[in-house]
Amino acid sequence: MERSQSVGSLLVVFDLGGVLAPSSPAITAVAEVLGVSEEILADPYWAYRDAYDAGGTADDYWGCVSEAVGRSIDVRLVERLDQVDVASWATLAADTRSLLTELAGRGVTLAVLSNAPASLATAVRASPWSACFHKLIFSSDVGVLKPDAMIYKIADAALRPQPSGVVFFDDRPGNVAAARTHGWRAHVWTSCGEALEVLAREGVIHG
User: Fold this and answer.
1) What is the pTM of this model?
2) Beta bridge partners of 188
3) Residue whose C-alpha is closest to residue 160's, from 11, 15, 16
């Protein structure tokens, strides 16, 4: 269940993968299921990801990935691959879990804007930790990927802040640059400690 937004406060928006959830566990888990090395998997895993994140089907995505690494695919394998992939991306790192708990405890309004497939979006919304977020916006919901300018406009319509009232963290510089062009106060994610320093400088938290 999404929280109500506190009036007049700055809104802090996070990317999911590479920010709230680390990237490496997903590649590791999927490579193990396919029986290939992470090095062999990495290129096709990412090469076909945009279409999947934009609303493509699991059958199409995992079919392309499996073919690229020389594995045959069936319904059970698709289900297993999607299961381990989603579980990896929907699991927060311990330090980011603590960061979210601290920010929510301070009354900071939080949101997620992430490139993610529909299965992951569903899993995140079902996760207990998602309750601290005011809004969860995923590319598969809207058919647009970061850094397309349209996704930031869509996010504004859902979040209803002034763009200058959004502080945004993403691990990809291109996404950050696009958000800044849109008017958000965007920063490249490096660590939870750095994020707290940024939020203090931005006036989101005090003390």
Assistant:
1) 0.93
2) 170
3) 11
